[in-house]
Amino acid sequence: MTLKEAGLLLAAGILLFGGYSWEQEREARIVAEQKDKDTQVQVQKLQQVQDDANKQLQDALAKQQAQFDTQMKTVQGQMTYLQNSIASLSKIGNLPQPIIVTQPSAPGQPTTVSVPPSDLAPLDEEIQKLQEDAQKLPVIQGDLISCQASVKDLQADNTQLKKTLKGGSFLHRLAGKVKDIGIGVGLGLAAAHFL
Questions:
Q1: N or C, which end of the chain is more exposed by having fewer CB within 10 Å?
Q2: Is pLDDT of 93 > 80?
Q3: What is d(CA 175, CA 162) in angstroms, rounded to the nearest whole number?
């Protein structure tokens, strides 16, 4: 083998090695580009998932904020009502005095209850009114009985009037019809006799 042939063989080896390397690099680049595209698609999908999750989170936060605002308005309204109630209670000067209950000091003794005199006046007035009403009750019951009797009399009169408007009882109406027929027959016979 000559030098020229060795050079050509070396050049052919270099070309083959270079071509093979170039082919390997090209395939690696294609694989890398495909992986890059796949990665970008995955990144876009993950970005979409993250955007959807952020939107859902923002919607949930907005809903919770609206509920919180509504609850706060309700609580503030209740606080205002309570403050107004406390203010109006402080304006009332004559609140009832407490009832004092005294427990017996020894077993067998009765428990005593003390009602303040200022609270007894309305109770006395109520008792007086109840006693007056109790005295009026027999009169009112008598009026009720007489009204019930009047209603029964009016109902009986109403029933009698209805019968009268109909023409009386069945037998009374039948007798009237028979009488009318008898008069008609009598008039017919008299007219036939004279004609």
A1: C
A2: no
A3: 19
